[in-house]
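Q: Structure tokens for this one, please.
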Amino acid sequence: MQAPLFIAAIAGLLVVISLIQPLARRLKVTSSVLLALVGIGIGVLASWLLYTPRTDAFNDIAAVFVNLPLNSQGILHLFLPVLLFQTTLTLDIRRMADDAGVIFVMAVVAVLVATAFIGLALQPFAGVSLIACLLLGAIVATTDPVAVVAIFRDIGAPARLGRLVEGESLLNDAAAIALFVILLDALTGGEAPTLTGGVELFLWSFSGGMALGYLGGQAMVRLLPLVRDFRLAQVTLSVAMPYLVYIVAENFVDVSGVVAVVAAGILINLAGPSRVTPDGWTYLNDVWEQIAFWASSLIFMLASILIPKLLVDVGWADLGLLAIVVAAALVARAVVLFGALPLMSLLRLSQPVSTPFKTVILWGGMRGAITLTLALGVTENAAIDPQVQRFVAVLATGFVLFTLLVYGTTLKPLIKVFGLDRLTPLDNAMRSQVLALALAKVREGVARVAANYNIAPAAAEETDRRYRDRQTIASGAASASQEILDRDRVTVGLVSISNREREIVLRHLRERTASIHTAEDLLAKIGRIGDQARAGGRLEYNRAARESLAFPRTMRLAQWCQRHLKYEGWLARLLADRYEMLLLSRIVIDELIAFTDDKIEPLLGARVAEILTEILLLRRESTTTALEALRLQYPDYADSLDQRFLLKAALRLEEDAYRALQAQNLIGSELYSNLAQEVHAGRDEADQRPHLDMGMRTEELTAQLPLFRDLPEDRIRAIARLMRPRFAVPGDSLIRKGERGDTAYFISSGAVEVSTETMRIRLGRGDVFGEIALVTGEPRTADVRALGYCNLLVLSRSEFRSLMDKDPALEAHIAEVAHARQRMNAEAEPERDAPTGRLAGTGQEHG
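A: Here is the predicted structure, written as tokens:
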């Protein structure tokens, strides 16, 4: 009978929770405050119904609420993993990285400071041990961001404020619960922990949780592509993961399950969107938003129902101790916010946090369900003295009620006092322009609807008049805001472009014209570019764009392995990844230029759009240069990838055509399934990356060179044996003008640039430079540097002369060819063809 009653009780609570949302809006109070009050009311009513002698009709259902079949551990294990995981999924982790130092101090350092302040302040007056006082401090150090963030969103507070509070809460819970476990063990074990032992245990719990969470997150990231096309399977996998990580951490590895879930969630937040389709990721987030709403509401309601049970025989002395807790918690939070954060900013360890932000965060330290659940856990522990149980239960519960009823009801007016609910001048200007443009389109749409449906002219005119008046006001406000600096408008435009760039990449991922790995790499680069644009405008955007084209640090290590260990697989993969990333990036930038002309110019003006287009054109030029360098290096591979991209685009168009025919009922589901299977098979083939050939055989390369082309095979083999491999990295200087020519270079793979006083020439795979030095030994006439990673074959003049001394016929042939090429060089005009910048003619000497 107990199980059906408990299920009925939970269902009834869900009904109440669903009605609380509209009621909270009508009453203009935070839903968390109303949930707590209703929960307390249910707890009081249930106790009265169970123990009153007037009736026994409701004893069974009342007993379910008074004696919940879930203990504190059950509540934490059931609700905490999903709450933590959903929060990490919705956070903008890359934006939070800018405030990583601030969040760490507010979450971890603040927990330690609050625990110490509260424990030391209570100990002289509480009549319990210092460990018990510190335990209470750890319990009430956990913050609940749900109510605070809801208030921020209701009044339009700055996004950074919400990120700071949510980021604090994630690590705050982890740090506080880890500290709670350590102090609880000390209290029940009867042995006071040493400072060193406590620190070691805390660090182990924290770092071990991060390591386990990373492994769990990596496992899910690698499993997601297997269920890429199955949304229900993705949701199922995501629900299982946080529970598995939490249980393994808490029960088998003895590290922090909270930290483990947070670490796993952060990794999935960063890598997950590129592992599934954008529609699938949106669906996943929507489902998790519903799950989190149920979990957060139920845990808060259940914890609130227990409040009457926890508040037993409260006296004036308890109120005095509660005042100490409130004051100590407030002072501890103020010390961190107004002491530690300014110091970090002064030392340039974090971005500054304004005084209004710090004040709102100070007053927004509300406590909730986690605090109540931890306090319940203390009351359930038979090894703890009943006096300590009552001490913790009363003060923790009283502190939660104080923060909800005082902080929760006064936070919104405080935010309005500081003006944090108002738009910045730039946002106001943007609002007026957006409104003017939107209302103009609305008027056009209304006119079309009126014409299409034969609406009476008087009705159409009245509706148009309303929007015309609003448009006039908005246009006037937009004209009055022209004093906003172009610099600020450019920053807004760059942020919009970065957001659009991310959407384009995700669209290519959804259409499968981009691979998961390439999209993931490019999305990470776009995130950094957007973040730096927000922080530093045009200058930082350009710097981040240049950095995004740099070779990865792992490239040198891969090059070392190729050069010294003869293992070229790693280097080949990195170079292939780079080409795909550059190809997709160039395609995306072309779309961004069109987006700027079409969307940004009407919003920000022609001058700003011109600046943004110039920035994008420079970025496209840099990307194209890097792409052409790789194309010169591996022309066959580049052609294969271009064909692969076109094939993927064709398959997407083919699938869209079949889907449209089915939607129009021109083909049945059986025929559509058959055609779709062919598309899927084609995609599987197109997803296979072509092989990247890192170089050519030495003899084959030697035979292709104009200087040696007509020689017999035995002499080509003899020359090939003299070749020495050399690997050049981007920017390496290979030849300097004026130095004595004693070597010739043959490009097996890669690209170089030859610079003379009048021109620059790019050479790629199969080309040769410096070969006349083999015969004449004359000074170099140009500078040559590597454009990318190059495999070169080097032939020294001394070894070549030694070979020719042994073979007079070879010497005569080489001399004839060399003299002919020198005459050609002297007669040639320094013309360049368009695509490569090579000298007109063939077989000319370079360098």
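A few notes: The chain has six domains: 2-66, 72-304+313-417, 425-484, 487-633, 645-694, 698-827. The first strand starts at residue 724 and ends at 728.
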